[in-house]
Amino acid sequence: MPSHPAPILFTNARLIDPASGTEMRGGLLALNGAISELGPGVASAPEGARVIDCGGDVVAPGLIDMQAFVGEPGAEHRETIASATLSAAAGGVTTLVATSATDPAVDDPAVVDFVLRRARDTGRVRVLPMAALTKAREGKEMAELGLLKQAGAVAFFDGARSVKNALVMRRAMTYARDFGALVVHFTQDPDLGGGVMNEGDFALRLGLAGVPREAETVMLDRDLRLVALTGARYHAAIVTAALSLDALRRAKEAGLSVTCGTTINHLTLNENDIGDYRTFLKLRPPLRHEDERKQLVAALAEGLIDIIVSDHDPQDVETKRLPFAEAEFGAIGVETMLAAGLRLVHSGDVTLPRLLAAMSSRPAEILGLEQGRLRKGAPADLIRFDPDEPFVVDPDKLHSRCRNTPLDGARLQGVVKTTMVAGEIVHELPA
Fold first, then answer.
1. What does the alpha-carbon distance between residue 329 and residue 320 come to, in Å, rounded to a whole number?
2. 203 and 321 belong to one structural domain
């Protein structure tokens, strides 16, 4: 990216700052990679500036997706940093937090450095690597957390693998606390969670092995007690069950340094969407009952759930076009995350500022980033979108290297027209 991109003035915009919950009509000037001015009276630009008339579209901070698989190193056939960031830019995501679930795992400072260099050379948006919490993500021995953090890891996460050994987890939390690092954990007991979809009547009808809600909450309960013991900063990567929400509410009320996220799929889809064994909806953790989905949405609206992630997980044809029980878990989602989330806004369940906060300002706060807010001096990582413009999801038009979207053919609203990173436009639809 150029060090000093040309000034850009957005006029006639609906400016939403999710960090403060404020909204106003006006203009915004991006100058030298940062927000220079914004507000109702901002209508003039320096000489040589480009002026974009937004026509009433929303201008907001770029989204921060705190859980995405970017493919490199080792799985370039599924995704690359170039293709993942192209998808992100098209979906309004300006920062991707990459998981450690690569081959080799991000458990060595050299691999952290590789991801950062590849992102700098080929990425269209910011890429921040999470490092593995344990060596090789095997849950047996703690990784070198201090060296990994020094190399540039923003958090520690073993991907969709739970650390089963409580002593290993306690040690990791203790060391992470001493380094001021964030522990992110996928909470699913591997012994209870061996099924392929949500446990219940629907799984019985399909003849598939189920995963009970308790598989998630048993592991989360253990983690929360270890947080109380160690004083670590802890983030539950994906919560999907009402039982987990109850545990998190108690932990937050007790003053523990605990946050949590859920995926856009668990907020907008339920187990019935699997229908006739649709493998693109085989997810880990599984889609839950509609009653659970509604409770997740309510928890998001009140702020109990802190963030929304795409859990972008590209899978190729060979691993998805199999019988449901044999197919791989995972779905792509970074490009459609905002539009899918706007379903909750249009239904009246969540306000637009709250949705944007869960996708931008709150992840920024958890990770200690400057992005995610509309204020003078903040990085000019911005998106412009029309929350009402309709479109139909066509997998062939998505930018990921894989096509395993659970929203194939879905009618959505919310078209991202402009995405800006550090004052430079990285995605723009023709006027």
1. 8
2. yes
Q: Is the pLDDT of residue 223 over 80?
A: yes
**Where does the pLDDT of residue 31 fall: very low under 50, low under 70, confident under 90, or very high at 90 and above?**
very high
Q: What is the mean pLDDT of the chain?
A: 97
Q: How far is CA 74 from CA 69, 80, 182, 291, 417, in A?
A: 12, 9, 25, 39, 33
Q: How far apart are CA 123 and CA 113, in angstroms?
A: 14
Catalytic residue among 17, 107, 158, 311: 311
Q: Distances in Å between the alpha carbon of 269 and those of 125, 167, 263, 319, 340?
A: 28, 36, 10, 22, 10
Shared domain check, 166 and 54: no
Q: Which residue type occupies 130?
A: M
Whole-number Å distance between alpha carbons of 423 and 5: 6
pLDDT computed for residue 11 by the predictor: 97
Handedness of CA 234, 267, 210, 161 (dihedral sign): negative
Residue 16, pLDDT above cutoff 60: yes
Are 319 and 352 in a shared domain? yes
- 120 and 167 in a common domain: yes
pLDDT given for residue 366 in this prediction: 98
| pTM of the predicted structure, to 2 decimals | 0.97
pLDDT at 3: 60
Query: Tokens representing 274?
Result: 């699997």
Q: Is 191 a catalytic residue?
A: no
- Residue 173 contacts residue 143 (beta carbons within 8 Å): no
Give the number of residues written for the chain.
431
C-beta of residue 398 within 8 angstroms of C-beta of residue 337: no
Average pLDDT rounded to a whole number, residues 44-56: 93
Is 183 a residue whose pLDDT tops 70? yes
Domains held by the chain: number: 2
